[in-house]
Input
Amino acid sequence: MSRFFPVPGECGHHTIFGATHIRTYAGDHLQLSLVDIPAQGVVDWHQHANEQAGMMVAGQATFYIGEEVKTLGPGDFYFIPGGVRHRVVADANPAQALDVFYPIRDEYR
Output
């Protein structure tokens, strides 16, 4: 076991919003979450106190953040301030995103 090089078994594994799988890892102050959204999957409207930033890794998804809507693809970044409602919908293919949270979301450890 290494603090610096975690293996999948040391990560959090969760299913959210029906069929979206996430793998998470937290340091002392921030948390990464690798999100796998199935084709046409929906991460429905929600909000949390945590600040969230991320990047699309694969596929395309439409992000609804506050009053703005934009379809993002690999390499595109997004930012969601704490307390802002948001939703994500994958297109006809699976999508993958990497989220960063501050502070850590304990429910996803």
Summary: The mean pLDDT is 97. The beta strands are 12-16, 20-26, 31-37, 42-46, 51-58, 61-65, 68-72, 77-80, 86-90, 95-102. The chain has one domain: 8-108.
